[in-house]
Amino acid sequence: MSGVAGKLFVIEGTDGSGKSTQFQLLCRAMTEAGIHHREVVFPRYAEESSALVRMYLGGKFGSRPDDVGPYAASTFYAVDRYASYKTDWQADYQAGVPVLCDRYTTSNAVHQAAKLQGDEREQYLRWLFDFEYRLLGLPEPDEVFFLDMPAQKALELLHRRQGDAGDIHETDHEYLARCRDSALGLCARCGWTRIDCAPSGTPRSPEDISADIVRRVMRALGR
Ligand code: ADP
Known about the structure:
By secondary structure, the protein is an alpha/beta fold. It has one domain (8-220): P-loop containing nucleotide triphosphate hydrolases (Rossmann fold), CATH 3.40.50.300. The chain has eight helices and five strands, in the order E-H-E-H-H-E-H-H-E-H-H-E-H. It has helices at residues 19-32, 51-57, 70-94, 105-113, 118-135, 151-161, 173-190, 206-220; strands at 8-13, 38-41, 99-102, 143-148, 193-196. It has a five-stranded parallel sheet, sandwiched between helices. Helix 1 crosses helix 8, helix 4 (105-113) runs antiparallel to helix 5 (118-135) and helix 4 crosses helix 7 (173-190). It is globular, with a radius of gyration of 17 Å. The relative contact order is 0.21.
């Protein structure tokens, strides 16, 4: 990639871990600090480029996440990211504007790697990062915050939020637990920052969690 790059910050976590809540709080803190930035949420369900993601989550290729291989599923999300980058925020990013993302390539790493184990998982991760960051030319995140919410708590939060039935990821509880394990492995492997959201089993308040994230982002931006 050429040119001066901005900084890319990613909020990551399993379903119901509080990503959307933390993303909004981080965006608000940036705005209040007067920092010009871009805000990007994945997948972009309202866009054409997410058609395959919607088919997958809607169960068109099978009713369980494991019915669709990690390589196929990863490409669905990656093309949406490519479309977003090229049509929306590449110019700003390259001009040095900080970009905040609610999920990113890192969501493929968490949710699709959970379908594999051992050597197959590592082989998949190498393929994924090479595919998105090198071959598709998407920028690598500077910092990834993994919201570590215990699977049972995340499920409770998800149920509190939802009136609807949930997609094929959200309704498979065993798979959600595997995703958390996969994410903990990624924190160690890739140097993601693990944010302990429920140290004693009870979730911390959103504002308390946010303070950790905002502090780190501001430090990375030299503020
Ligand atoms: P995600 O985007 O990861 O699926 P959300 O941010 O939508 O998760 O959070 C799921 C639900 O839990 C929402 O109703 C949200 O208001 C609530 N929530 C998020 N974080 C917390 C928290 N730390 N404590 C209590 N409730 C939370």
